[in-house]
Amino acid sequence: MTDTDEIIGGADTHADTIHVAVISAGGQPVADREFPTTETGYHSAIEFLTRHGVPRVVGVEGTSSYGAGFTRALASKGIPVLEVHRPDRAARRCRGKTDTLDAYAAARAALCGHGVSEPKDERIGVVRALLSARRSAVKARTASINQIKALLVSAPEVVRSRFRQHRAKQLIDALIETRSNTHGDPMAAGIVTAARTLAERVVFLDDQVEFLTDELDQLTAVLCPTLRSAYGVGPDTAAQLLVTAGENPQRLRGEGSFAALCGAAPVPASSGKTVRHRLSRGGDRAANNALHRIALCRMARHAPTRAYAARQSQAGRSKPEILRLLKRAIAREIYRLLTRAVTPPDYADLRRTRQERNITLTAAARHLGVWPGTLSRLERGQSRDDELANTYRAWLAAA
Hints:
By secondary structure, the protein is α/β, with parallel strands linked by helices. The chain has helices at about 40-50, 70-75, 90-95, 100-110, 125-155, 155-165, 170-175, 185-225, 225-230, 235-245, 255-260, 285-300, 305-315, 320-340, 350-355, 360-370, 370-380, 385-399, and strands spanning about 5-15, 15-25, 30-35, 55-60, 80-85, 115, 265-270, 275-280. It has 4 domains: about 5-115, Nucleotidyltransferase, domain 5, CATH 3.30.420.40; about 125-225; about 230-340, no CATH class; about 350-399, 434 Repressor (Amino-terminal Domain), CATH 1.10.260. Strands 3-2-1-4-5-6 form a 6-stranded mixed sheet. A two-stranded antiparallel ribbon has the order 7-8. A hairpin with a 4-residue loop joins β2 (about 15-25) and β3 (about 30-35). The model has no long low-confidence stretch (mean pLDDT about 85). Pfam families: DEDD_Tnp_IS110, Transposase_20.
């Protein structure tokens, strides 16, 4: 093989090592070798590939995890990279598993184009990190509140009677202000100390959740402002949909495949004379949850969605069936926002006009019959509602 021959690379990635394999354009094994996951190791791996020919493409397992560093190194050299999905388990059981076999399998997958996709945009790694940190903080906060309630269930009556009527927020505030030395009973004092410590943890986690939400708010607004302008799409749901889609549109083959990826593609569930569909149980369940939250938000507050749900209900459809239809329609809308250059609405004039007329946000929201937060997000371009914007603009002009 000469230096001008095209070759296909494959990489099986791990925390400390990567195993790189080379095959010819016809699929014949050429060579393989292991390298450390360091800058020097990546440089040596690329030299190993180019020594055997011109890399047409390199298939890498885990481009967003163990293979992220190697993917960046390949991209800096202008070498095309494809993300290789997990091998079929049945096929793996038949041929066995080693780093060498997996590296050659990745190269063959990149050659035939089966079980591969474009690597996710590197900026999505930042969104994923922030989203993961926020969700773990929310989970820890919920666990701490549950621990407090469990402690109070078995606490002495003097403690239980003091905090029995408090709801979660009031309970946390009351515990923060409580001192254990006010109780003569050592058992009661110990319970109060433990509960107050957990309450302080809840306050700390509340601050973390708020900070991480603000970070996601700013980042998602920069990465995909059109997505954030959609009704019911907040920082958390936008972040999850961006992580699922991977930001780069070329990963998505069509709105049907995106719906299937989100577990929102209809699945036939007919029998006899009954013709119906149900929600898919496959796909990314976190993305499906994001679509579900958007659908619930729209069913509660979005007038067109409420009217649509009412029509479907009158037609005899159940709430789960209506949610299935809504999630499929929302998936179609999200796909369009992710893959097309849609210009977000310009609502900048609304706030400027309101301030020129010395009208408070609360007064405007009361007149229009919406929450001040809804109007604030509309003014900042963080939500899209053309009907409300036109009504608001007309009212400001007449004010």
